[in-house]
Design goal:
The chain has 404 residues and is of the alpha/beta class. 39% of the residues lie in helices and 17% in strands. It is built from 15 helices and 16 strands. Strands 4-5-2-1-7-8-9-10 form an eight-stranded mixed sheet, sandwiched between helices. Strands 13-12-11-14-15-16 form a six-stranded parallel sheet, sandwiched between helices. Helix 3 packs across helix 4 and helix 4 packs across helix 6.
């Protein structure tokens, strides 16, 4: 197959560690199929990078990543307003790159990851080019729709008109069907992990490699510092059990717009010696952080099936997480404990309970994740099936899926 990927979830010259999980699946897909990617970069991200980096220089708009040709057009949109227009802005921003891909690459199918605006623009452009299109949804692109009615309307429009929709968990698939999408076009393909990179190893050796103390419990959060991840709830939970004279260290790995406010919250709670914001870490360093931790904590308000937890368990480390999205599907046995989102007291209690019984890692537990190669093969089969059925005499999806 010749697959044209359209996604904002891909590393960029401005954010080289962005969406490593998506990069890995695309790389696995490209090992057996021809792949080209259009990865728009929000103008606001470019501007932020320029402000924060004194050595900032203009970046290349086209480059080869893991053997894949990637083009990075600038995505221009009005910030925080007119969200119903974002799909049109996205389509306009990638239009020339899409036309170049048609003329130079001759794709068999368009594959977009993220419902809106990525999926909406991909559907419109693919339909104009008479190409089949499949949209993958990840979690927050579906879970948070009620906050923005215009976005919900456009998301539903995109998924109704796509030839297929891929969800990363059973829970997410049910929510997509709940939007009125034909269940016969909704498929579950869970993400994989890099099994060569994420595997159990000695906690003590991992701590020595990271220069961490070997005599206190360690809590690790990995993710973007954005509101949906609920990191402020974790800070409040840490304050609760810190007041009970519990000794611990908590490391926040990631970057985002909330970093300064979180640092202020940590200071106001008197937790400077307990919680550290470490910024982003290269993906290849994350296994040792998972292995070094007694617990990985993910207090999100919304998730699909987060790779952070899949990777943690693959390294033999248990987790505490919010009971949202598809996380319940992997919280099996004593592998993980779930709490209501936003409940700092429940989160604190769950963390304390797990830490009291976390002297051993969970490497004896059966694996819950599969490799990216396995995930990519399942995805490829669905894409091949979509191409084969594209010219069938059945009615167009847009004709059989009502709008409302």
């Amino acid at each position: 197959m010749r697959i044209l990927g359209i996604t904002n979830l891909f590393p960029t010259p401005w954010q080289p560690e962005r969406a490593a999980f998506n990069r890995q699946q695309f790389t696995a897909l490209a090992s057996e199929h021809s792949l080209r990617i259009i990865a728009p970069v929000a103008w606001s991200d470019e501007l932020s990078s320029r402000w924060q980096n004194s050595d900032w220089r203009p970046k290349k708009r086209s480059m080869v990543v893991d053997g894949i040709q990637v083009e990075y057009p600038r995505y221009v949109f009005p910030p925080r307003i007119l969200r119903g227009s974002y799909g049109h802005c996205y389509r306009q921003s990638i239009g020339r790159a899409f036309d170049r891909a048609l003329n130079e690459f001759h794709p068999d199918i368009v594959y977009a990851t993220w419902a809106y605006p990525d999926g909406w623009a991909a559907v419109k452009l693919a339909r104009k080019a008479n190409l089949p299109v499949v949209v993958k949804v990840h979690g927050s692109d579906i879970h948070l729709l009620d906050k923005h009615p215009a976005r919900k309307r456009r998301t539903r429009e995109a998924l109704c008109q796509a030839d297929g929709v891929i969800a990363v968990s059973e829970d997410l698939a049910r929510q997509v069907v709940g939007l009125g999408i034909d269940s016969g076009r909704v498929y579950v393909v869970s993400n994989g992990v890099d099994s060569d990179l994420f595997s159990p190893s000695s906690r003590g050796e991992a701590r020595r490699r990271l220069n961490l103390s070997d005599d206190r419990p360690i809590i690790v959060f990995v993710g973007n510092l954005v509101p949906v991840k609920g990191v402020d709830v974790l800070v409040r939970a840490c304050k609760i059990f810190s007041e009970e004279k519990m000794d611990f260290s908590c490391y926040l790995i990631g970057r985002g717009p909330l970093q300064k406010s979180l640092e202020h919250q940590i200071q106001s709670c008197g937790l400077q010696g307990k919680i550290q914001c470490l910024g982003s870490k290269p993906h290849k360093e994350l296994p040792d952080w998972y292995r070094a931790a007694n617990l990985v904590v993910l207090p999100s308000h919304s998730e699909g099936l987060p790779n952070v937890l899949l990777e943690a368990v693959a390294c033999g480390t248990r987790f505490v997480a919010s009971d949202v999205g598809g996380i319940r599907e992997i919280a099996i046995g004593d592998r993980g404990k779930l709490v209501p989102p936003g409940d700092a007291a429940a989160l604190a209690q769950a963390i304390q309970s797990m830490l009291c019984d976390s002297t051993q890692q969970s490497s004896h537990l059966p694996a819950i994740s599969r490799s990216f190669a396995e995930s990519a093969r399942d995805l490829a089969r669905l894409l091949e099936r979509t191409i084969a059925s594209h010219h069938s005499p059945m009615p167009r999806v847009s004709q059989i899926c009502p709008t409302r």
